[in-house]
């Protein structure tokens, strides 16, 4: 967008322009300005008013700029622009209205008169640059005059407050540290447009843009986000700066021959005019236009000749507001009535009876000020910043007046606009990013998971290794004394299988520690479920053996009882396997997401079923006459097991982030230790410390007391 807004003053020059003039941002001084020589006598000044501080403005009052003719043998002659834009004229008059309103307000900048110097950018780069340098020359002249009149000289510094600069390229605060705007960037518009077209099911679209940064960055961002949502860009057309008739016809042919009927356009109405005129002349219909904010509300395109072509156009516009008291002066009879205000030209002279109030145009329609309101806010932003910088609130020191001879830098002008340094607009940080402490930049969030290096992780690993070591020691003791009666009782093969399953229960907890990966997410619940089912199956067999008075020998039963759990885990992992997932609910927690939650609860439910059967049968056999009746030990171990896992469920559901995993590990370790200590430690006590009881008579309770 080649629109600008600048601040010129007797002690300050704060340019307020946009994309085409960004090369000048951040410059703190121009020592070579007095050496510049103007080659053109006339300037494209549209309107001006003197003041203590003069605000400069760029507006595209015309949308067709002549091609620059530089022979470098003679002075370039001024070339008038054409195509008067009523809408831009309204923006300009909004600036005038805001300046005059501030001058009438005794509470804002008391003792300081604001002026304005407004240039016509003609919506083109070279005319905008020409207008810019004209303002720079004017600023230098004012500075020289102010130095001679005891006013502190100023420097040229970049601190733009743009009202129509939506390009995302201007968001980089390292490149453009003092650029400010009263309009949101295209980041929001692009996101909205992508959501719009995908919601309506338009996944095959064409795009049209121009050669400027506004169009380039807008189309680039749209295409990228659109493809991420599954869309496809059928074609892209670029409108040259000054397109020839052949180029316009070629683009029109491309549009007519395309199979897509949805076209997204990032451009201004002036840049689109020639192409739309060609399409209208060909009576092209059936194109669904999706417009950027630069032309979606342009009244230039609402004339009857474009109705059949543009009807149904969609897009996002700036919110419309009403600015109280804003009614404009009659300043453009020539365009609106076809009369001239003097004898120059071929138009007849105005009669004086023309009545602007009886006409309708984008200039006279101030009921819904959109971009005009951004201009209005920009002027007031400057005024409030100046009010602070000139110490206008220090009435005791300045006798109620501002220090209008005070000089300051553009960076000072940027703190005082009520915006944190480095941020001119609020944007939501991308997923997995957080704002820094100053709420200025988005920084990558820290990924959290239960690490092996965390204090909690270290404690859990130590407990796991302790359990494995104890199980190994007990297995060694049982193997060393495998021929003794106490080991042979209750089926020694099942005892060794139980010790192996307990070791697996301890080791499976290690799969829950560390950063989740594809394989650890798939293995952790399956390893947990199968290990505990094997453990409980062994206990169930031991209980049945006790109930049958040691008459049964069924070593195949644990394997049989494990089969349902193995089949369930295999089906779960094949159909809907858990996978690593970044959960931003509590910071950024890397966890295993289970796409089918019933899988985990079915695994847990089968474990609960076996545990219930173990507890029931062990409780029934607890009073059988036998000195080494394991039913009592199994009953006690099952009570501990149930206490752990009943308390696990509410703790698991209510624990945030990585503590959810820690709760499950604690439950695994606590229940494993409970089984190990309750069932095997009493036997190891007899084997190692009371060997006299490890005899057949001891088995029947007939050992000496």
Give your account of this protein's structure.
It comes from Lates calcarifer. This is Olfactory receptor C family, u1. InterPro entries: ANF_lig-bd_rcpt, GPCR_3, GPCR_3_C, GPCR_3_Ca_sens_rcpt-rel, GPCR_3_CS, Peripla_BP_I. GO terms for molecular function: G protein-coupled receptor activity. The chain is an alpha/beta fold. Among the domains are: 143 residues, Rossmann fold (3-Layer(aba) Sandwich); 134 residues, Rossmann fold; 210 residues, Rhopdopsin 7-helix transmembrane proteins (Up-down Bundle), CATH 1.20.1070. It has 20 helices and 19 strands. It has a five-stranded mixed sheet with strand order 2-1-4-7-3, sandwiched between helices. A five-stranded parallel sheet has the order 11-10-12-13-14, with helices on both faces. It has a three-stranded mixed sheet with strand order 17-19-18. Strand 13, helix 7 and strand 14 form a beta-alpha-beta unit. Helix 12 packs parallel to helix 19, helix 14 packs antiparallel against helix 15 and helix 17 packs antiparallel against helix 18.
Which features would summarize this protein structure in a list?
19 strands; five-stranded parallel sheet; disordered N terminus; 705 residues; single chain; disordered C terminus; 11% strand; alpha/beta; Rhopdopsin 7-helix transmembrane proteins
């Amino acid at each position: 967008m080649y629109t600008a807004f600048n601040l010129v003053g007797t002690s300050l020059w704060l340019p307020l322009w946009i994309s085409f003039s960004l090369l000048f941002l951040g410059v703190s001084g121009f020592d070579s300005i007095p050496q510049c020589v103007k080659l053109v006598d006339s300037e494209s000044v549209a309107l001006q008013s003197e003041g203590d501080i003069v605000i400069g403005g760029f507006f595209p009052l015309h949308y067709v700029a002549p091609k620059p003719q530089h022979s470098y043998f003679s002075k370039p002659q001024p070339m008038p622009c054409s195509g008067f834009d009523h809408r831009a004229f309204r923006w300009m008059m909004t600036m005038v209205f805001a300046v005059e309103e501030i001058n009438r307000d005794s509470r804002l900048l008391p003792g300081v008169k604001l002026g304005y110097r407004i240039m016509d950018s003609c919506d083109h780069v070279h005319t905008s640059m020409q207008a810019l340098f004209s303002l720079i020359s004017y600023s230098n002249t004012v500075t020289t005059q102010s130095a001679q009149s005891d006013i502190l000289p100023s420097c040229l510094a970049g601190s733009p407050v743009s009202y129509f600069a939506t390009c995302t390229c201007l968001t980089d605060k390292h490149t453009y540290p003092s650029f400010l705007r009263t309009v949101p960037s295209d980041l929001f518009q692009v996101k909205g447009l992508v959501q719009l077209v995908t919601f309506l099911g338009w996944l095959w679209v064409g795009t049209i843009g121009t050669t400027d940064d506004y169009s380039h960055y807008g189309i680039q961002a749209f295409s990228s986000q659109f493809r991420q949502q599954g869309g496809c860009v059928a074609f892209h057309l670029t409108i040259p700066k000054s397109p020839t008739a052949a180029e316009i016809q070629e683009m029109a042919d491309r549009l007519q021959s395309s199979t897509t009927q949805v076209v997204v356009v990032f451009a201004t109405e002036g840049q689109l005019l020639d192409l739309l005129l060609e399409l209208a002349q060909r009576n092209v219909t059936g194109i669904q236009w999706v417009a950027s904010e630069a032309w979606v509300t342009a009244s230039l395109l609402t004339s009857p000749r474009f109705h059949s072509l543009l009807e149904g156009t969609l897009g996002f516009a700036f919110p419309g507001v009403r600015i109280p008291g804003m009614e404009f002066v009659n300043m453009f009879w020539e365009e609106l009535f076809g009369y001239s205000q003097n004898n120059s030209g071929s138009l007849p002279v105005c009669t004086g009876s023309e009545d602007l109030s009886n006409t309708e145009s984008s200039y006279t329609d101030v009921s819904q000020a959109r971009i005009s309101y951004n201009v209005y806010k920009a002027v007031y932003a400057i005024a409030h910043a100046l009010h602070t910088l000139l110490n206008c609130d220090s009435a005791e020191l300045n006798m109620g007046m501002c220090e209008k001879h005070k000089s300051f830098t553009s960076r000072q002008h940027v703190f005082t606009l009520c915006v944190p340094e480095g941020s001119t607009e609020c944007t939501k940080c991308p997923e997995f990013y957080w704002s820094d402490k100053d709420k200025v930049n988005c920084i990558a969030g820290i990924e959290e998971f239960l690490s092996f290096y965390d204090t909690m992780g270290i404690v859990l690993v130590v407990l796991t290794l302790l359990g494995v070591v104890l199980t190994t020691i007990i297995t060694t003791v049982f193997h060393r004394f495998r021929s003794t009666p106490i080991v042979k009782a209750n089926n020694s093969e099942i005892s060794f299988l139980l010790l192996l399953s307990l070791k697996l229960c301890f080791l499976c907890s290690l799969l829950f520690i560390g950063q989740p990966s594809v394989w650890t997410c798939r293995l952790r619940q399956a390893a947990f479920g199968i290990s505990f089912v094997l453990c409980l199956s062994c206990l169930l067999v031991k209980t049945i053996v006790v109930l049958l008075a040691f008459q049964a020998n069924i070593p195949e039963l644990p394997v049989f009882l494990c089969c349902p759990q193995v089949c369930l885990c295999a089906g779960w992992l094949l159909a809907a396997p858990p996978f690593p997932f970044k959960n931003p609910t509590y910071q950024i927690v890397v966890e295993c997401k289970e796409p089918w939650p019933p899988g985990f609860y079915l695994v847990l439910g089968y474990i609960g079923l076996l545990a219930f059967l173990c507890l029931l049968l062990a409780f029934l056999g607890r009073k059988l006459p036998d000195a080494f009746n394991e039913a009592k030990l199994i009953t006690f171990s099952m009570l501990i097991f149930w206490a752990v896992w009943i308390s696990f469920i509410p703790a698991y559901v209510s624990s945030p982030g990585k503590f959810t995993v820690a709760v499950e590990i604690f439950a695994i370790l606590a229940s494993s230790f409970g089984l190990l200590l309750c069932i095997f430690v009493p036997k190891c006590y007899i084997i190692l410390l009371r060997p006299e009881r490890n005899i057949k008579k001891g088995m029947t309770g007939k050992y000496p007391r």
